[in-house]
Amino acid sequence: MTSAYEPYVIEDNQIASGIFPDIVNTVFSLQDIKVRFQFHSWTRGEDLVKKGMVFATFPYIINTQRTELFEFSDPVIYFFPKFFYLKQNFPEGFSWHNLKDFKPYIIGGVFGYWYESAFREQKIEVHYVTTDTQNIYKLMYGRIDFTLIDELVGWKLIESIYPQQRRVFAVAKKPESSSTFHLMISRSYPHANKLTEQFNKGLKRIKTNGTYQRIFRRYAVPMEYATSW
Question: φ and ψ at 92, to 5 degrees?
Answer without folding.
Answer: -95, 5
